[in-house]
Amino acid sequence: MEYLKETKTKFDRILEVLKEEFNNIRTNRPSPKLIEDIKVNYMEQQIPIKQLGTINVEPPRDLIINMWDQNVISLTVNAIEGAGLGVNVSSQGKTIRVTLPVLTEERKKELIKLVKSTSEGSKIKMRLEREDAVKKGKGLKDEDERFRAKEKLQELVDEFNKRVDELVDKKTTDILE
């Protein structure tokens, strides 16, 4: 039943990737996670914003980046604008202000559709892993053991599908606020 542990590890990884993808989908609430991993081309290297300055939330919809190096400000502004987040970016001195405009109803619907399609992609990956595990389970000699393994696998799939659905519900709620 080693393959069940392997499958669970793969499911965990799929769930982590989904969470990371959801962090990149904006809501009406500002979060440093929205911009911290955007790469800035600085000194011929791709450096995430979180390594170039501190990011703070300024309610209701602003992110403030205090840059450590004045020379990287324009590059950072360009990187944020090029990320396609639909935010307004301005800079003054060593500070960059990222303002999230209020989401329109149409944009909220688009984002919810994106959340659902992203989660469906994760469920498809899990189904493929499940099929792989079923094939490995058919290699078991004892029929009772095969049946128990199949049941445990189904429980695992159900648990992870439930967790994906919970993530979708949470992200959808965040978008609609």
Task: Write up what this structure looks like.
Helix content is 55%, strand content 17%. It has 177 residues and is an alpha+beta fold. The protein folds into 2 domains: 2-24 and 104-176, Topoisomerase I, Chain A, domain 4 (Orthogonal Bundle), CATH 1.10.132.20; 32-99, Gyrase A, domain 2 (2-Layer Sandwich), CATH 3.30.1360. The strands form 2 sheets. The chain has a 4-stranded antiparallel beta sheet, covered by helices on one side. It has a two-stranded antiparallel ribbon with strand order 1-2. β3 (53-58) and β4 (62-67) form a beta hairpin. It is elongated and about 70 Å long. The mean pLDDT is 91.
In short:
This protein has four helices and six strands; from the N terminus they run αββββαββαα. Helix content is 55%, strand content 17%. Helix 1 packs antiparallel against helix 3 (105-137) and helix 1 (2-23) runs parallel beside helix 4.
Summary tags:
single chain; 177 residues; alpha+beta; Topoisomerase I, Chain A, domain 4; Gyrase A, domain 2; 2 domains; 4-stranded antiparallel sheet; two-stranded antiparallel ribbon; 4 helices; elongated
The number of distinct structural domains comes to: 2
CATH topology of the largest domain: Topoisomerase I, Chain A, domain 4
Which structural class should the secondary elements be placed in?
A: alpha+beta
Q: Average the pLDDT over all residues and give the rounded result.
A: 91
Fraction in beta strands: 15-25%
With strands numbered from the N-terminus, the spatial order across the biggest sheet is 3-4-6-5
State Rg.
21 Å
Largest sheet: 4 strands, antiparallel
Q: Segments where pLDDT lies below 50 for 5+ residues?
A: none
Total of DSSP H or I helical runs spanning 4+ residues: 4
What shape does the CA trace take?
Answer: elongated
Number of strands: 6
Q: What is the CATH homologous superfamily assignment of the largest domain? A: Ribosome-recycling factor
The amount of helix comes to 55-70%
Q: Based on the structure given, which CATH architecture of the largest domain is correct?
A: Orthogonal Bundle
| Helix-strand pattern | HEEEEHEEHH
| Cα end-to-end separation | 44 Å
- The CATH class of the largest domain is Mainly Alpha
Family: Belongs to the RRF family.
Organism: Candidatus Colwellbacteria bacterium CG10_big_fil_rev_8_21_14_0_10_42_22
Domain Ribosome recycling factor: 18-176
Pfam families: RRF
